[in-house]
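Q: I'm writing up a methods section and want to include an example of the input and output format. Could you take the sequence below and give the corresponding predicted structure tokens, formatted cleanly so I can copy it straight into the document?
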Amino acid sequence: MKMTANHQLECTSLPVLSSRNQGWENILVEQFQHPAGEGRTYYSDEHAICLSLAPRPVGLLQIQGGKIHQGLYAKGDFGIIPAKMPFFARWDSDDRFLQIRLASRFIQSVARETLDTNPDRLELLPVFRIRDPQIEAISMMLLTELQQEHPGSRLYIDSLTNVLAVNLLRQYVAIKPKLPIYEGGLPQRQLLQVLDYIDTHLDRDIKLADLARLLDMSQFHFSHLFKQSIGTSPYQYLIQQRVERAKQLLKQTDQSIMDIALESGFNSHSHLSKQFRQITGMTPKAYRAN
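A: Here is the clean output for your methods example:
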């Protein structure tokens, strides 16, 4: 064990996969694999989620918040470790799990902007061994991104991070807030403003915060209204428009496919090819020759 500068205790073993150098904001996603053993953690400014990936149930003893929990953790079970809460665990066999850490300040920001909740009264509850299909699905999508050779855009990661935060705030706090209901989509003027921004900045790594800030609304609010307006998420729309830009360049220029990929907002030839094939059913090279 080691004590880091911000008073965190962490296992000294390195993660199998980590988003630490991916540039993801407000979230750290790491996959671990440990032999039987024990560990302690204390995160001063992050809330942690631990999702079991173990192929066989693992016997686990946990102590957090002055309470002792003991039982089998099966694949898909997860627990929550709130910030500033000392945590101890002992496991009796090989363990695999995904740890997701969300910045406390980000959770507070989502509570204030999305749920109109006073962040000073926010109390995330410690949780031991629970099932939540939505949390599990979001976690597995984040893991899938970690496993990609070319991780998805910031817009996609930002969207997953926001939805994860909102789900935690809806279900796992002491005083449950009421989630606002958004209906009707964006007014045409605002929608066109966003679409024009995306079209102008296709070659950049657009963030969800950039789009929400245009309309002075929360990221979660914006995502819901955008999807109601055109039937797809901001990320799906962005990928569609990047593929459309690539199609134009493939037909109208003799640029290399690598240059077209970068000009269209993809980070590599293979990233373009993967998304292009998913949407058109063919490779960029075949589309150009067609």
